Amino acid sequence: MKQSLLILFSIILSASTTFAQNTVKGIVKGANGTTIPGATVTVRGTKIATITDTNGAFSIDARQQPPFYIRVSYVGYKPQDFQILQLQESPIELTLVEDTQLDEIVVTSRRRSEVLQDVPIPITVIGGQAAENAGAFNVNRLKELVPSVQLYASNARNTTLNIRGLGSTFGLTNDGIDPGVGFYVDGVYHARPAATSTDFLDIEQIEVIRGPQGTLFGKNTTAGAFNITTTKPTQTPTAKVEMSVGNYNFIQAKTSVSGGVAKNLAAKISISGTQRDGTIWNTREERKYSGQNNLGFKGQLYFTPSDKLKVLLSGDVSIQHPAGYPLVIAGVTQTERSAYRQYARIVSDLGYQQPRIDPFSREINTNTPWRHNQSIGGISLNVDYKIGGGTLTSTTAWRFWNWDPTNDRDFSELAALTKSQGNSRHDQYSQEIRYAGNITEKLSGVVGVFLLGQNLQGLGQTEEVGKDQWRFVQTANTGAQALYSTPGLLDGFGIRTNSTIKSLSAAVFGQVDWEVLKNLHVLPGLRFTYDKKDVDYDRNTYGGLQTTDAALLALKAAVYANQQFTTNVDNNNLSGNITVSYRPTPKLNAYATFSTAYKPVGVNVGGLPTTSNGQADLSVAVVKPEYVEHYELGLKTKPIKGAILNVTAFNTDIKDYQTNVQSPQLGVNRGYLANAEKVNVKGLEIDGTYQLERFLTLNAALAYLDGKYVTFTNAPLPLEETGHTEIINGVATQVAFKDASGGRLPGISKWNVSGGVEFSTPGNLATKPGRYFIAGDASYRSTYSSNPTPSSVLNVQGYSLLNARLGFKSDKFSIFVWSRNIANKNYYEQLQAAAGNSGLYAGVLGDPRTYGATFRYSF
Question: What are the transmembrane regions (predicted)?
Fold first, then answer.
């Protein structure tokens, strides 16, 4: 018995000795030497964790023999791993680096990791946490943080994403045009602008890159690019949950779970859901519109068999079934048409009262339900393999987009243009292979090839008129036109379109960075692009009065007519850039850039205007490519400790600028593409940040933009000039176009300003140490034109927005209250003429004041 007790005592003593030998003691400090209480210390790969005491000290039992890693994290600092090679009696000192070191922000805009201030490109970086804190659950919110960004959307499909006023046509979207702003998520190019409407999931960083970048990215980026990276799966089990609630019954939930599933294989699953009541009330239907109803999912597998090879497989899908996004009636203006064709006279003759012009009552009275359902997603495989001083990357992706809308395009209770359904189905396949890194001590760069195939189908796209349309299309109550009032002639009369665009884009691109002399870098780049588009367009009429009367059939055909055409077009382009950068000290980077860029040929698939004999005008079926010449001077500085100040001046000339033309003909109510001969945009950008320890962070940015048509001799008439007549050969002749040379480009505010401030101080919430904070940001945009041709009525007045948040954040959780548009400012994001140009115009309203609270927890 004594021998057994002696053996048991020996085992216990041995276990106690082992326990003592596995204990790690330490002190966590900041870079300035101050201790950090409340920091989380975790044995990596386990759930063993502890928190530092008020003196920053900790003691943790690792329950394993060295070597092993411990991870130390605390709010405001970068999580860091420390390897424990041996145990010791004296405490070890562990130093954390602040996460808010503004001059150490790392970007991948040149396809490799570099410090932001060393890159001779104007870039704005927004961290994922900062984007979420600002309420930026999609790109639309970011335009308030980056003055050079313009994003206007009446719905997900009709989205204009521009940088410095350039990129895409302003207003109604035509699927036959390529965007000029690249949108990349984890290296995958997203071809359709609807991608900007999806909720952010696990964003690590957003880089907004300004200016042409065709020698660095796979797809043409004539105006710039959004380069978005997401957080990758981790072997260490982690999870994060977030819940937000607010007015208009807003609720948003996000969660992600990550961890190792096998040796060298980690997985992550992320889910988000957003719900919000509408902010616009339909008095006829007695329901709310302009709400949110989104569900998003993302899954990733991350395989890292060695330090050289990394493989990321990602899949995502976002489903959105919102209460649609209607436009409100914003006003009625007099046109130059006869009194018989003015909007007030038309609705009076139909027995209606002229609509009440009170857009900010947020009430509509439409009789066709608004619907903007979409699903968007895809799968991608990214392989990184280190070779020599660089990385060989292959990115393979397939993405899809399904669009199922319904719009009431007369914006009123009238049964005029009752239905517009631009159903679309899009598939894209892309492959990019590139090598980026250091070639020699003085030479680095990137070279790659890119292939993008797209199949964009318009499936049964419908436009339909109702019983009141006869009065809008009747130009005079005389002669044969009086027959337009024939009962049932146009009731339910419409067109159904099936169209297909099959496109192929291929490119070879490269850019090098050569340090020719100490601190003097020359960066030449070159790109060759081939583009091809095959179009099949088939539009057929249906409905209305079934008759064999030739006069009635002619009247119907003047409203809608069959159109069929096919076209094939291809072109290629050689473009490039050269930058000279001088970096005499770590605090100064001066650079100058000249670049040429190109946006591919466009095709019209929204209906073509007709010639005098009623046939489709095939001369405008194809739109010429854009050609860009761009000059830029930039200065990146660190004037004092904790401060960054950057200045950029630029001048951009575009030949054959692709623009959207709104035709007075009903059959092309979505507008069609055309070319303006020459456009110029020039401007000045200033942005700065200042950080005082961890207590105060300031940021501000200003953009002055001057964009105009240098030459646009065949511009469409603005709404108020519809019906304009001129004396031609001694005869008063009605014209449909004018010379808009010298007029300002749509969507560009001359002055764009944004800024933000955050104060924080250490403190405890219950027993949890962290920091209390109060923060706010403001933005201002001056007046801008909202029409392809400058108009006296379709101008959006300048407006300012103010947002704020207040709360507490720690390493593991944060809780704060927030409000956007605190002053409840009434403003438009866009104005547009109603189809037919009778004098009515409608607007897209900005959101009213919203407020709520957010809670986040990670473990």
Answer: none
According to DSSP, the β-strands at 114-115 and 106-107 are antiparallel
- How many helices (DSSP H) and strands (DSSP E) are in the chain? 5, 53
Residue whose C-alpha is closest to residue 88's, from 154, 25, 1, 16: 25
Q: In what order do the strands lie in the sheet with 123-127?
A: 123-127, 203-210, 224-230, 181-185, 188-189
Residue tagged 């749509």 (tokens): 746
Best CA proximity match to 524, nearest among 859, 216, 219, 187: 216
Q: Which two tokens stand for residue 304?
A: 């890292």
Q: Per-residue pLDDT for 14 more than 50?
A: no
- Residue with the larger pLDDT of the pair 346 and 324: 346
Cβ within 8 Å of residue 286, ≥6 positions away: none
Report d(CA 452, CA 404) in Å as an integer.
24
Question: Which amino acid, 191?
Answer: A
Three-state SS sequence of 416-465:
CEEEEECCEEEEEEEEEEEEEEECCCCEEEEEEEEEEEEEEEEEEEEEEE
Give the phi and the psi of residue 474 in degrees, each rounded to 5.
Answer: -80, 115
Contact between 577 and 595 (Cβ < 8 Å):
yes
pLDDT (tens digit per residue) in 204-233: 888 889 999 888 888 888 899 988 889 899
SS3 348: helix
DSSP-assigned letter for residue 722: T
- d(C-alpha 768, C-alpha 39), whole Å: 10
Q: Supply 57's token pair.
A: 């000290």
Backbone angles phi, psi at 622, to 5 degrees: -115, 140
Exposed / middle / buried, residue 12 (Cβ in 10 Å: 0-12, 13-18, 19+)? exposed
pLDDT, one tens digit per residue, over 681-739 is 999 999 999 988 778 999 999 999 999 999 999 888 899 999 898 888 888 888 888 89
Contacts of 237 (CB under 8 A, 6+ apart): 47, 258, 259, 260
Per DSSP, 325 falls in state -
In angstroms, the CA 278 to CA 286 distance is 12
Closest by Cα among 680, 681, 687 to 702: 687
Q: What is the pLDDT of residues 755-765, one digit of tens each?
A: 999 999 988 88
Nearby residues of 560 by Cβ (< 8 Å), 6 or more positions away? 463, 465, 493, 494, 495, 541, 666, 667
Residues 6+ apart with CB under 8 A from 793: 331, 333, 718, 719, 720, 831, 841
Burial degree of 217 (CB within 10 A; 0-12, 13-18, 19+): buried
Mean pLDDT of the region 129-141: 66
Three-state SS at 397:
strand
Which contiguous run of DSSP H or E holds residue 719?
A: none
Using a pLDDT cut of 90, give the percent of the chain over it. Answer: 56
- Residue with the two structure tokens 């240098």: 710
Of the candidates 190, 192, 191, the residue with the CA atom closest to the CA atom of residue 155: 192
Q: b or e along 382-400 (b: 16 or more beta carbons within 10 Å of the residue's beta carbon)? A: bbbeeeeebbbbbbbbbbb
* pLDDT value of position 50: 86
pLDDT-based confidence at residue 15 (cuts at 50, 70, 90): very low
pLDDT-derived band at 173 (thresholds 50, 70, 90) equals low
Q: Which residues contact 68 (CB under 8 A, 6 or more apart)?
A: 43, 44, 45, 62, 83, 84
At 708 the three-state DSSP class reads strand
Q: What is the CA radius of gyration of the chain?
A: 30
Give pLDDT, residue 758. 93
Distance CA 437, CA 794 (A): 49
Query: In sequence order, what are the beta bridge partners of 292?
Result: 276
How far CA 536 is from CA of 234, 368, 599, in Å, comes to 47, 30, 22
